[in-house]
């Protein structure tokens, strides 16, 4: 390679960048890999998981869900990219996973939720099919242009991942964050997207699902009232409904969930990600009225 060619290669590599958020992750987190200054869509892996990159201004991003069952320790990150005007280059690194230290709690719920009738079991099965259909979407670019914000003030009454003993015997894991609120308090969309499910379900009560592109969904459970319908395109902060206590609950609150590429992840990890640079998002969503 000539000195001129070598200089061109070095300049191209200097223009390319790969960043990973967060620097240290926990099982159940969403991890954002951003590649800028490249000629075409990159490929890569984070541990055993393939990276599906989506186009953004100046480059590409991949959002990866870490399993809640992931073992703490280093995870290898490899990205194959083509810097502008150059041949393929491999960039490698390591993401550290730390122990989650999941909390534990005991809950008491009505017997009908732990021993549902035949009719209620059939209703739950129909609900499950509706969820599966709503989550069955193609990988498409982001539908949002701002970072995510909490749908309500983040007064957390139950965190993601806690292990629950229900009525003294049944264990389950909490795949969302419970946010405090009184019946009738407003709930805003965590970001722009498309409403793909509006349904009154047996366990989750009045439920809204919003798809944000990239097989990334936010879920809003136990509402007292809907203020959107399926197929609506919503903006960040737009009102989706009101806090309630429908479904399997012990009191009024919002269960807020995030599902990414088939896995529930910690909503707090999504709130911390900077998709477009700039300062952290507001602690409360800028609720919009309609």
Features:
290 residues, mainly beta, ten-stranded antiparallel β-sheet, 4 helices, globular, disordered N terminus, disordered C terminus
Q: Alpha-carbon distance between the termini?
A: 63 Å
Q: With helices defined by DSSP (H or I, 4 residues minimum), what is the helix count?
A: 4
Low-confidence stretches: 1-13, 284-290
Number of strands: 22
Give a quick summary of the entry.
With 290 residues, the chain is mainly β. 14% of the residues lie in helices and 40% in strands.
Structure description:
This protein is mainly β and 290 residues long. It has 4 helices and 22 strands. The strands form 4 sheets. Strands 11, 14, 15, 16, 17, 18, 19, 20, 21 and 22 form a 10-stranded antiparallel β-sheet that branches. Strands 2-9-8-4-5 form a 5-stranded mixed β-sheet, with no helix packed on it. The chain has a 4-stranded antiparallel β-sheet with strand order 1-3-7-6. Strand 6 and strand 7 (59-65) form a beta hairpin. The radius of gyration is 21 Å and the shape is globular. 36% of the residues are buried.
Q: What does the secondary structure layout of this molecule look like, with pairings?
A:
Elements: H1 3-15, E1 17-21, E2 24-25, E3 30-36, E4 43-46, E5 49-50, E6 54-56, E7 59-65, E8 73-81, E9 89-97, E10 104-107, H2 111-114, H3 118-135, E11 156-158, E12 163-166, E13 170-173, E14 177-180, E15 186-188, E16 193-201, E17 205-211, E18 216-226, E19 233-234, E20 239-243, E21 253-260, E22 263-265, H4 267-271
Parallel strand pairs: 2-9, 10-12
Antiparallel strand pairs: 1-3, 3-7, 4-5, 4-8, 6-7, 8-9, 11-14, 12-13, 14-21, 15-20, 16-17, 16-19, 17-18, 18-20, 18-21, 21-22
């Amino acid at each position: 390679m000539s000195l001129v060619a070598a200089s061109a290669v070095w300049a191209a590599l200097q223009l390319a960048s790969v960043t990973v958020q967060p620097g240290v992750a926990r099982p159940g987190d969403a991890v954002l890999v951003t590649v800028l200054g490249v000629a075409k869509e990159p490929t890569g892996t984070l541990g055993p998981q393939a990276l599906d990159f989506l186009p953004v201004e100046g480059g590409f991003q991949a959002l990866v869900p870490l399993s809640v069952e992931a073992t703490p320790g280093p995870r290898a990150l490899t990205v194959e990219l083509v810097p502008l005007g150059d041949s393929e280059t491999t960039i490698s690194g390591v993401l550290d996973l730390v122990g989650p230290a999941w909390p534990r709690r005991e809950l008491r719920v009505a017997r009908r939720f732990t021993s549902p009738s035949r009719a209620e079991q059939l209703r739950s099965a129909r609900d499950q099919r509706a969820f599966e259909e709503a989550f069955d979407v193609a990988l498409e670019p982001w539908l949002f242009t701002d970072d995510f914000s909490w749908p309500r003030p983040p007064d957390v009454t139950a965190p993601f991942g806690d292990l629950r003993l229900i009525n003294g015997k049944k264990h389950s894991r909490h795949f969302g964050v419970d946010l405090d609120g009184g019946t009738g308090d407003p709930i805003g969309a965590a970001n722009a997207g498309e409403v793909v499910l509006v349904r009154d379900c047996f366990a989750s009560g009045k439920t809204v699902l919003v798809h944000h592109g990239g097989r990334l969904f936010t879920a809003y459970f136990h509402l007292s009232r809907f203020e959107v319908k399926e197929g609506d395109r919503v903006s960040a902060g737009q009102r989706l409904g009101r806090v309630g206590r429908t479904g399997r609950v012990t009191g009024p609150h919002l269960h807020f969930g995030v599902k990414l590429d088939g896995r529930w992840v910690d909503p707090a990890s999504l709130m911390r990600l900077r998709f477009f640079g700039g300062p952290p998002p507001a602690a409360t969503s800028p609720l919009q009225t309609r």
